[in-house]
Write a structure and sequence with these properties.
About 35% of the residues lie in helices and about 10% in strands. The chain is of the alpha/beta class. The structure holds flavin mononucleotide. The site of flavin mononucleotide (FMN) has 23 residues, from helix 12. Flavin mononucleotide binds next to helix 12.
């Protein structure tokens, strides 16, 4: 049983966004989420996704060392509607760190064994912004996955729990979880894990993210049987990375490039399992490709023969129709042929490399009237405000022995109001100002400065933004400037918000204020992530 947490149930936020990006009031006495005593919870957590059922959804793929809180915040600034995913969280980590003792585990309850502070490092998120959000778990021990699922749902109120059966990295393979669970001899274990997760998470959906084949097991019968067995164990939702995985001989990066993509196999699974929800992942380059995949392309408009299209949807790999370099088949279904249980799609590297693409998600993909932001300046202003809130400056306190290394930032007492490096900026309401000709921040790598904000914090904060100017001429210069400033020991203590604002001085106003281009007006759209990436 999960013990009573320090912040208890009240730590689950009362003002949430529903799936339409609207504020939902949570009544004071409706604190059923996170009751923390293991008693059956109310289904509120799952609503974010359940309300959504009639509509297709766009997911931002789980990516280790990428989809952290900072990255997710950026995604949420760009889209109120897309579904966010955590990085993979290892069940064993939650199991042990939640039971570990630390001096600050002060629930006031001598019997409590739940170390919220430690678990927060892995599972905490911004309840007011991040819903709908799915927590991905990696694990092999049903006891640990069950325990972790209970915490994920009861204590943190995630909207869905996902089991990682996709990751082929050596480290993950060594622990016998991730993609290796797709191996025939391991599937029984995967089924036990799903059953254990399901028991511990009541109304919250359990899903699996997997590939379409593994090693030599790559024919349709194999994946059909795998889905059948996992479905029997209680899983009704599958995020299908539409390429097989090779456990030996390919690195994780190569495993996302070399094996061909095969979308038609997913359409076939949709047909064969009408009661299961499927989501396509792998190689989707942006919103246009995403929408064509899940809503189908307009065969009438193209004047193409409908029957031929239906056949095309089912053609085999390698495919001469798609003309995709490494023998993949990435044909989208025609509108008249979209499986109704193809519920959505998932984008990974496209969002990591070129996050601006997401700006048009709410209008173009979800059919909203407007998007949250129209220019990069609007995005950056919100993101800088966020950084300022979660990682405040450390240049005006004397508590050199306390380091800011993660959220929540330690609270410190400011002994002075004024810092000669960042005061002007703060007095100016933390505005983003272009100063292209007078780029006068002094890079200072010398001298003895006590570093109070770690480089880890700086990297996490700035990295999500590095691709925001993707495709624009000053993109490289901006990235370089960020690197230089991150290395500057003096400016670092002024906080990541100031570092980012300082790097932005080299970006002309005209670029910051230029309106994003509507997805349908984009020219030269690459429909899929290049197999070389
Ligand atoms: C840096 C990186 C880290 C990833 N980490 C995970 C992970 O933890 N769990 C997982 O299921 N997939 C992980 N993936 C795979 C992605 O979720 C996704 O399945 C893959 O990138 C294919 O989608 P894409 O072509 O849209 O990038 C990772 C991918 C990248 C690039």
């Amino acid at each position: 049983m999960v013990g009573t947490a320090r912040n208890g149930p009240a730590s689950v936020k009362r003002n949430k966004l529903n799936n339409h990006g609207e504020d939902v009031d949570v009544d004071d006495d409706d604190e059923s989420i996170g009751n923390g005593d293991g008693s059956p919870h109310q289904p509120r957590q799952a609503e974010h996704l359940q309300q959504h059922h009639a509509q297709k959804s766009l997911h931002i793929a789980p990516m280790i060392r990428v989809t952290n809180r900072e990255f997710r915040q950026l995604m949420r600034i760009l889209s109120k509607r897309c579904v966010l995913w955590t990085e993979m969280v290892v069940d064993e980590t939650i199991f042990y760190c939640s039971k570990s003792k630390s001096p600050s585990t002060s629930t006031g309850d001598a019997t409590s064994t739940f170390n919220r502070e430690k678990v927060d490092v892995h599972l905490d998120y911004d309840r007011s912004m991040e819903h709908p959000i799915i927590c991905q778990i990696g694990g092999i021990d049903p006891e640990h996955t069950a325990y972790t699922s209970r915490i994920v749902v009861d204590e943190y109120g995630y909207d869905e729990i996902n089991l990682n059966m996709d990751c082929p990295s050596d480290r993950v393979q060594g622990k016998e979880f991730g993609a290796i669970l797709m191996k025939d001899e391991k599937v029984n274990r995967a089924c036990e894990i799903i059953q254990s997760m399901k028991k511990s998470s009541s109304n919250v959906a359990i899903s699996v993210k997997c590939r379409i084949g593994i090693d030599d097991d790559e024919n349709y019968e194999f994946i059909h049987q795998l889905i059948q067995r996992l479905h029997k164990a209680g899983c009704n939702k599958f995020y299908m990375h539409a390429r097989k995985v090779l456990l030996k001989g390919l690195s994780p990066i190569q495993n996302r490039i070399v094996p061909p993509l095969n979308y038609p196999i997913i359409y076939r699974l949709c047909e064969d399992f009408p009661k299961i929800d499927f989501y396509i992942n792998g190689g989707i380059s942006g919103l246009r490709a995403a929408k064509r995949l899940v809503y189908g392309y307009d065969d009438e408009k193209k004047g193409e023969d409908k029957d031929a299209n239906i056949k095309n949807n089912q053609h085999s790999v390698p495919c001469r129709v798609c003309n995709y370099p490494n023998g993949s088949c990435i044909v989208p279904p025609s509108k008249s042929n979209v499986p109704s249980n193809l519920r959505g799609c998932m984008l990974g590297r496209a969002m990591m490399d070129n996050p601006s693409l997401l700006w048009d998600c709410d209008r173009y993909f979800y059919g909203e009237d407007n998007n949250p932001c129209r220019t990069r300046r609007e995005v950056l202003t919100q993101y800088i405000n966020y950084l300022e809130r979660v990682y405040p400056r450390r240049c005006c306190d004397d508590q050199d022995y306390i380091q800011t290394n993660r959220i929540p930032s330690p609270s410190v007492i400011h002994t002075k109001d004024y810092c000669e490096v960042c005061s002007d900026w703060r007095n100016n309401n933390c505005l983003i100002t272009s100063n292209v000709n007078n780029n006068n921040i002094i890079i200072n790598n010398g001298g003895k400065v006590k570093i109070k904000i770690t480089s880890h914090v700086l990297q996490r904060s700035i990295r999500p933004i590095l691709g925001l100017f993707f495709g624009l001429s000053m993109s490289k210069a901006f990235r370089r400037r960020c690197e230089e400033l991150i290395a500057d020991k003096i400016i670092r203590n002024c906080g990541p918000a100031f570092v980012l604002a300082s790097a932005l001085r080299i970006v002309p106003d005209e670029v910051l204020d230029r309106e994003f281009i509507r997805t349908e007006d984009l020219s030269n759209v690459v429909e899929h992530v290049s197999p070389q990436q």
